[in-house]
Every structure is written in C-alpha cells, then in structure tokens.
Prior knowledge:
Blueprint: E1 9-13, H1 18-29, E2 33-38, H2 41-53, E3 58-62, H3 68-82, E4 87-90, H4 105-133, E5 136-141, H5 154-174, E6 179-186, E7 189-190, H6 193-196, H7 203-207, E8 214-215, H8 216-227, E9 237-240
Parallel strand pairs: 1-2, 1-4, 2-3, 4-5, 5-6, 6-9, 7-8
Amino acid sequence: MxxxxxxxxxxxxxxxxxxxxETARKLAEEHVQLVLAARRKDRIDALVDELTAMGAQAMSxxxxxxxxxxxxxxxxxxxxxxxxxxxxxANAGFGYRETIVDGDTKRWKDMIDTNIFGLLLxxxxxxxxxxxxxxxxxxxxxxxxxxxxxxxxxxxxxTKFAVNAIGEALRQEMARKNVRVTLLAPGVVIxxxxxxxxxxxxxxxxxxxxxxxxxxxxxxxxxxxxLKLPRHVSLNQMIIRPTGQVNP
Length: 248
Ligand SMILES: NC(=O)c1ccc[n+]([C@@H]2O[C@H](COP(=O)([O-])OP(=O)(O)OC[C@H]3O[C@@H](n4cnc5c(N)ncnc54)[C@H](OP(=O)(O)O)[C@@H]3O)[C@@H](O)[C@H]2O)c1
C-alpha cells in the first residue's frame, strides 16, 4: 500500500519489548503506520494483533540487526508494504555490567555487534528511505552510560559513546536533507533491560535510593513530543534521568 503524504510510517527495531514496544503503542495511537522489528517473532506478531485491534496499520518483520541480510530484508518489507518510511527508531540494544578483567569476551562482541554494528546497518539501509521521502526523523538510543563511565560499565558505555559519535555524524549528513536526528540518552528505565543485564533483585532500587525509575511510556512520550516540533527545530540530544537518579 502506498502511503499518502499525511500518513506517516515508523520502523522500530527492538519492538518486542521495553522502549520499542511502548513507543510503537504511542505512535499507533497517533495514527502512525508501524513496522515492528525484533528477533522474537511471536512477540512482534502479538504486538501487531494488539495495534491492529486499536485500528492501526502494523506489520512485523523478524530481524536480527547484527545480520546485514536481515536488516536489508526489514527495509525491503517496509517498502513493499508501505512504500516508504518517515520515522526510524534505532532502538535495539542491550547491556551487561562486567569489569574489564572479568568480562566475558563473547558478551563483549555481542554488545558491540548489536549496539554499534547493528545500529550502523539499521541506519545505512533505513535512512535512504527517509531521504527519498524528502523528510524524516531518526531516533538513536544512547544512554547516560554514553556520557558517564563507571566501573563495570566500560564496554556498554563504549558502545553508547559510539552511538553518540554515529548520531552526530548522521546529524551532519542529514541536516540539509530535512531529516532530523535525535539522540536519546535515558537513565534507568524499567524494562527487560535489567533482566537481560542480569541485575540482582533490589539493584535498581538501591541505585535510585528507593525513588521511582523511568517507565517506558516516559520515553515514548518524549519521542512523540519531538515528532511534533516544527520541522525547522531539531532536538538533537537529550539526557533523560529519573529525577532521583544521582549517578551516573
Ligand atoms: N532500560 C534502560 O534503563 C535503558 C537506559 C538507557 C538506554 N537504554 C537503551 O534503550 C534501548 C532499548 O532498551 P529497553 O530498555 O527497551 O530494553 P529491552 O526491554 O530489553 O528491549 C530491547 C529490545 O532490543 C531487541 N534486540 C536486542 N538484540 C537485538 C538484535 N540482535 N536484533 C534485533 N533486536 C534486538 C530486543 O528484541 P529481541 O530480543 O526480540 O530481538 C528487544 O526488543 C537499548 O538500546 C538500550 O541500550 C535502555
């Protein structure tokens, strides 16, 4: 189906959980057509059903962002169904806390492959569709860990510092193409991130001194707000902490 100039289409990587899934829900409420990408097909299929029941247009594409053919397939499917895309949310990623000396080298490689190489593939094959369309918005998920480093967070921080570098280069490359680039750097957001990272029960509560963490809906709201800014206004970088987060 060709999209009209009024209908926007968003591609979200990492839509099976957390920030990606909640942002999909928020954009569906705002009548954005959605392409939901992740490895867990059952999860993104269930989300398609949920969003379709709300009256939204949505499709799922199983995608591993570490795999170049898989990412090419994601955007080929996007083009086949919706003709183009206007919004790209490069969100897939994860972290582990491990000291350099004790670090598991397979986990390091997986984090680097997903958070850096997978992001680059997503941008390389996704951004041209926005440029063709003559306007667009790209969101990259950095982190406060992309601004501040702590013991045990070296490799995750390194990947998120890389996200910032890639995002700034992309911003400059897209500035005269009417494509806005926004780096979002959240603090603690409750999602499956903590399970994947293997945090011990109570870790987040201790970290935040019992104050509330961010919810995924808070990040989704920020994406929605940025999208509504006048086209000549670009909110390029944002650190979003829960108010009670002291460090980092
Ligand atoms: N939660 C936080 O406190 C926090 C703070 C700062 C930044 N962030 C960043 O925000 C982003 C989203 O995190 P979240 O909190 O929403 O975590 P989450 O609930 O664990 O979601 C992570 C998403 O990434 C997807 N993903 C992971 N590896 C992938 C791969 N190889 N290919 C495709 N998809 C992949 C997962 O889907 P599948 O497993 O189904 O593939 C899942 O949908 C990440 O980049 C994270 O680094 C999170």
